[in-house]
Specification:
Length: 250
């Protein structure tokens, strides 16, 4: 998966630096955009995975399910953060997660502009460019930063902001690249990620990286249904108490 993320990342970086990509919209939802860079990245990933792992099924955001009747499935987001990419903001990634019987067992998130390759394997830790990530436990709890990721249909999000600030949260952000937000959590740069109805592409790669760095989710992640419309709501943070607190106000 690392090789496919790296090669797809080179495609995205070249297109990003040229700045020539145009937005296309999926259906009637004006927030859900993609570009030719998405499909070019996806084609590269599928080509490499098919060569290296010809018997493993693939669920990709643009092309859908490539069913090879395997117990393992690789979930692919060829460009997580399409809006940022199109706006010229270098906060986007290539993201992949491998599921085995409904559980995330390994994942990769790659930011090609910053050349940051995150990788995690269940039970073996999370890594950034080969160096193991270790969650900081002595951060100042008076300044809590939270990122949130959600489906485009969440009319109550304004109320969540209000409740979060009233509960003592210092900073609430939406960076429009959820998998990278989980990686920021794994690096101890933020304190929690709130996922509200996020699709499988938008949480599974980054979630494992945060989890393997030492973060704690609430509620406990169960086996995930592998499908394009599979979504989930949870909070993962650097402390169980923070995750529980935030989940109650979502």
């Amino acid at each position: 998966m690392i090789q496919s993320a790296y090669e797809a990342g080179k495609i995205l970086k070249t297109a990003f630096e040229r700045g020539s990509s145009k937005a296309m919209h999926k259906g009637k939802d004006s927030y859900d955009v993609f570009s030719k860079a998405d499909t070019d990245s996806e084609d590269m990933i599928i080509k490499i995975l098919t060569t290296k792992l010809p018997k493993v099924s693939i669920l990709s955001e643009e092309k859908g399910f490539i069913d090879r009747k395997s117990v393992s499935v690789i979930v692919v987001d060829p460009l997580d953060g399409s809006s940022n990419f199109l706006l010229g903001l270098p906060h986007f990634s290539v993201s992949l997660a491998c599921f085995h019987q409904g559980e995330i067992v390994s994942s990769v998130v790659y930011n090609p502009v910053l050349n940051k390759m995150y990788f995690a394997e269940k039970g073996r830790g999370a890594f950034l460019n080969g160096k193991k990530l270790k969650l900081l436990t002595n951060k100042n709890s008076a300044h809590i930063s939270v990122n949130f990721a959600h489906s485009t249909k969440w009319p109550e999000k304004g109320k969540f902001f209000d409740r979060a600030y009233k509960s003592g949260i210092s900073r609430v952000m939406n960076n429009w690249s959820p998998n990278l937000d989980f990686c920021l959590l794994a690096e101890s740069k933020i304190d929690a990620v709130v996922s509200r109805g996020s699709l499988i592409y938008d949480f599974s790669p980054g979630f494992l990286i945060a989890k393997e760095s030492g973060c704690v989710e609430f509620p406990k992640m169960k086996k995930v249904k592998i499908s394009q419309d599979s979504s989930i709501s949870f909070v993962i943070g650097n402390k169980k108490s923070l995750s529980t607190k935030l989940f109650k106000i979502v």
